[in-house]
Specification:
Layout (H helix, E strand, L loop, with lengths): L6 H13 L7 H7 L7 H11 L3 E5 L3 E3 L12 H4 L2 E3 L2 H13 L4 E5 L15 E2 L4 H13 L31 E6 L2 E6 L5 E10 L2 E10 L4 E3 L2 H7 L6 E8 L7 E6 L1
Parallel strand pairs: 1-4, 4-5
Antiparallel strand pairs: 2-3, 6-7, 7-10, 8-9, 8-11, 11-12
Organism: Paenarthrobacter aurescens
Protein name: CD-NTase-associated protein 12/Pycsar effector protein TIR domain-containing protein
GO molecular function, one term: NADP+ nucleosidase activity
Length: 260
């Protein structure tokens, strides 16, 4: 997934993608998978395309830009004459790369009202919002890109998250952290207050595996089952992505990464 500085919006989109049982690959993971200490942007994008079934480019109005007064023409509209939100430069560059390499697997998503881009007027944008049709369009686009998704879920369920380019990060008073031990990973709760009715699921080999824990006290941890190691083997390293939420949906999905 390609995104800009609106990290709250990015996290909400990742939460939705995990809700429909997909496993997003972020920039950091794609960079690591290049196997190079200092990969170029093209190498990272190319590696991400090799690993992923599709690329989602999230256009959000994170920057502000306008045309200099001396270059204005009579026909130029308001978005050329006054500061208007536009995607970050990296998003524009990486979107072009993805579109050039694999247009049939590139999904263009727009949030808010970013500045007009005339060169891609013909693209049928997906306008990301909290309407059913918007979410259904995103699911359909992923299916058309041959991504395996669970399209039988309630796309308006609270656990699916909300999309808002002005969204704030949820006010959560706890943080997850990994503390790895030999042959067994532990997801350690570093919060201040107890939390209840927690559901955790981890993603390995493309599958989702649930772990249930009714209550966690500060300092307690959730053990990753032994069968992760049994499936992977003692000599195999595998990235394991863990998503968490409480059953009420008040805490949206997030993820952390470790290696078994």
């Amino acid at each position: 997934m390609v995104h800009g500085r609106d990290l709250a919006l990015r996290d909400q989109l990742i939460g939705f993608l995990r809700y429909i049982d997909t496993s997003p690959i972020g920039w950091t993971e794609a960079r690591f998978k290049t196997g190079r200490p200092s990969p170029t942007t093209l190498e990272i994008v190319t590696t991400g395309l090799k690993l992923a079934q599709a690329v989602i480019v999230l256009f959000s109005p994170d920057d502000e830009a306008k045309l200099k007064d001396e270059y204005l023409a009579p026909h130029d509209g308001p978005d050329e004459r006054q500061l208007t939100g536009q995607p970050r430069q990296n998003v524009l560059l990486e979107a072009g790369m993805a579109w050039a390499i694999a247009p049939e697997r590139t999904v263009m998503v727009r949030a808010g009202h970013p500045r007009h881009i005339s060169d891609i007027d013909g693209i049928n944008w997906i306008n990301l919002n909290n309407d059913f049709d918007s979410r259904r369009s995103l699911v359909d686009a992923l299916i058309n890109a041959e991504v395996d998704v669970n399209d039988r879920l309630d796309l308006l369920h609270p656990a699916s998250g909300r999309f808002d380019s002005k969204a704030k990060h949820p006010q959560i008073n706890f943080v997850w952290a990994f503390s790895w031990q030999k042959n067994m990973g532990r997801l350690v709760y570093r919060g201040i207050q107890p939390i209840t009715d927690i559901r955790v699921r981890y993603h390995a080999h493309g599958a989702n595996h649930p772990i249930e824990q009714e209550r966690l006290e500060p300092g307690e941890s959730i053990s990753l089952p032994h069968f992760i190691r049994e499936k992977l083997g003692d000599d195999v390293e595998e990235d394991v992505w863990i998503s968490w939420s409480d059953s009420s949906g008040q805490v949206q999905y997030d993820s952390v990464r470790g290696t078994v």
